[in-house]
Amino acid sequence: MSRAASLDLVAQLRYIACMKTATIPSVRVEPEFRAEVESVLAEGESLSEFVEASVRASVERRRVQAEFIARGLRSRDEAKRTGDYVDADDVVAALQRKLDAARARLTNPPNTRK
Fold first, then answer.
1. Domain locations along the chain
2. Contact residues for 85 (Cβ-Cβ < 8 A; gap 6+)
């Protein structure tokens, strides 16, 4: 092995040694479900990669959901504090008017001249 290759290997090993990994506990599932999961794997994708991607997506979805709820609660509190809010019935009525108008446009298109 050349000196340069040896130095590259040492650098790589130092990098890997700094990385700490952990495992996610294994999950027992019925053989049919495992077969279903394996049937949707992408070309060259391992079951472990699929599970990791799924867990990461679930964590992100829950984080986003928690942030959404927190923003809603802050907005509610601010509306209560300031008294500046729109009644839900008024919002629904306005949306219904828009929906009715859009449906009317679809069923009665304007006359066009040729």
1. 44-108
2. 79
What CA–CA distance (Å, rounded) separates 88 from 78? Answer: 16
Reduced 3-state DSSP string for 1-15: CCHHHHHHHHHHHHH
Count the residues in the chain: 114
| Mean pLDDT, range 12-29, rounded to an integer | 77
Q: Which residues make Cβ contacts (< 8 Å) with residue 41, sequence separation at least 6?
A: 47, 50
| 55 close to 24: Cβ distance less than 8 angstroms | yes
Provide mean pLDDT across the span 18-46.
Answer: 90
pLDDT digits (tens, 9 = 90+) for 38-60: 999 999 999 999 999 999 999 99
CA 31 to chain centre: 28
